[in-house]
Amino acid sequence: MSKGFMVGALSLWLFVGPALAQGTPAPANAYLYIGWPNDGDVLPAGRPFKVWFGLRNMGVAPKDAEFPNTGHHHLLIDTDLPPMDQEIPSTRNYLHFGAGQTETVVELPPGRHTLQLLMGDDKHFPHNPPVYSRKITITVR
Predict the structure, then answer these.
(1) Exposed (0-12), middle (13-18) or buried (19+): which is 50, by Cβ within 10 Å?
(2) Which of 1, 33, 68, 131 counts the highest number of beta carbons within 10 A?
(3) Of 26, 79, 34, nearest to 55 (Cα)?
(4) C-alpha distances in angstroms, 58 versus 22, 52, 93?
(5) Does residue 73 sit in helix, strand or coil?
C-alpha cells in the first residue's frame, strides 16, 4: 500500500469519522414504537386523531436538557429517516416535540400515510446508535 493512499484514507476517516459520531450515546436496548394508531388502521377523514409515542429503556427530556440516556421525540409523516449524522430537519414532515411530549394530535388528508418516530438528543441529532420505531402505514378515508 502506498504512503499517499494511507494518508488519503486517514484524511477521509478524520473528515467523516467525527460527523458519524455526532449523536449522543443511546442504550443498545432502547426501543421506540408508536402505541397508537396501529399499522394498517383506517381512520376517518376530517377528524384529528391522537398519535401515542412509546419508549422503553430510555427517558424523555426536553430539548436542551442534557441528561444521559434521554432524548425527545420526532414524528416523521410520509417521509424516510433523515441522515443519521445531521440535525433532524424541522418541516411539515418532521415534527419536533422538544418539550418532551409523548403524544400529539394530527389531522391528515384522505389517503395512505406513513408514520415513524425518531429520538433526537438535546441538540436534535439522532442518537448513536439511532433510536427509531418501525414505520407504520395508515389510511385516512
Answers:
(1) exposed
(2) 131
(3) 34
(4) 19, 16, 24
(5) strand
How far is residue 61's CA from residue 69's CA, in Å, rounded to a whole number? 9
Phi first, then psi: give them for residue 7, nearest 5 degrees: -65, -40
Q: Which CATH number characterizes residue 59's domain?
A: 2.60.40.10
- Structural domain count, the chain: 1
C-alpha triplet 125, 72, 117: angle, nearest 5°: 85
Handedness of CA 55, 61, 67, 73 (dihedral sign): positive
Which residues constitute the domain of residue 25? 3-140
> Which SS3 state, helix, strand or coil, does residue 102 take?
coil
What type of residue is 81? Answer: L
Q: What pLDDT tens digit does each residue of the chain (141 aa) get?
A: 444 433 333 333 333 333 444 679 999 999 999 999 999 999 999 999 999 999 999 999 999 998 999 999 999 999 999 999 999 999 999 999 999 999 999 999 999 999 999 999 999 999 999 999 999 999 999
Tell me the C-alpha distance between 117 and 94, whole Å: 9
Segment (H or E) for 105: strand 103-106
